[in-house]
Amino acid sequence: MIDVDGLRKSFGDNEVLKGIDFSVPAGSVTVILGPSGSGKTTILRSLNALDRPDSGIVRVADVTIDFGGPYGKADIARYRRQSAMVFQNHNLFPHKTVLENIIEGPVIVQKRPRADAVAEAERLLADVGLTGKRDDHPDQLSGGQQQRVGIVRALALQPKVMLFDEPTSALDPELVGDVLKVLKDLAAQGWTMVVVTHEIRFARQVADQVIFVDDGVVCERGTAAQVIDEPAEDRTRQFLRRLL
Ligand code: ADP
């Protein structure tokens, strides 16, 4: 579903991604681990073109872009539609209701019929345990509920791939479990997911592949059992020791 080949990105003089390669099979969950500042978020944002890589060939579902070569706005728009991103701080519009937040993308951007978008939103809200919340405003919900709305909003775009950037790290500890449960349900439904997280237990339970990124390179990659329980690289061991 995803192929990343030679992904590079600098911000000014700061080379953040130094040639990243990995693949993500359809229907699988990849967890990206690594120290703060190692480039994890930039990888995820590159998969959605929120950051434009300097070079590298990236395929996301049906669209391949050679970021070193010429590409146009239409290519980027098609590339971006393949995936949807869930942010650490959900980024819901505070003055809009839950329903309005969810259907904005499908109705305004994707021009889908409003009735279809509403029906889909209600079905997805039920799936994540938020039946009856459609007319609330975000500030009437707990942080965990808001984050579940953020996930529904991404799902409503009907992407091929779901990208999660530290989806639980802004939550109070007692709210983390509900959000991870939603991610587990999505994995069980067969979604292709890439998740940046420090939740090692979640990675052990759900990840088909774990990628350890350090200083802009993929330092180690394998199953959770390999990378977390029997890391081959010193840097991976040091990182995990601090986390566990
Ligand atoms: P991680 O997700 O692993 O914490 P990031 O991908 O967020 O790492 O950041 C990697 C590096 O890139 C950091 O040094 C960060 O300061 C830098 N960086 C990220 N985004 C920008 C930006 N928009 N402008 C300048 N520097 C950035």
From TrEMBL:
It is found in: Cell membrane. It is a peripheral membrane protein. PROSITE patterns: ABC_TRANSPORTER_1 (PS00211), ABC_TRANSPORTER_2 (PS50893). GO terms for molecular function: ATP binding. InterPro entries: AAA+_ATPase (IPR003593), ABC_ATPase_HisP-typ (IPR030679), ABC_transporter-like_ATP-bd (IPR003439), ABC_transporter-like_CS (IPR017871), MetN_ABC_transporter-like (IPR050086), P-loop_NTPase (IPR027417). It comes from the Bacteria. The keyword Ligase does not apply. CDD domains: ABC_HisP_GlnQ (cd03262). Residues 2-240 form the ABC transporter domain. Keywords: ATP-binding, Cell membrane, Membrane, Nucleotide-binding, Transport. The keyword Transmembrane helix does not apply. This is Amino acid ABC transporter ATP-binding protein.
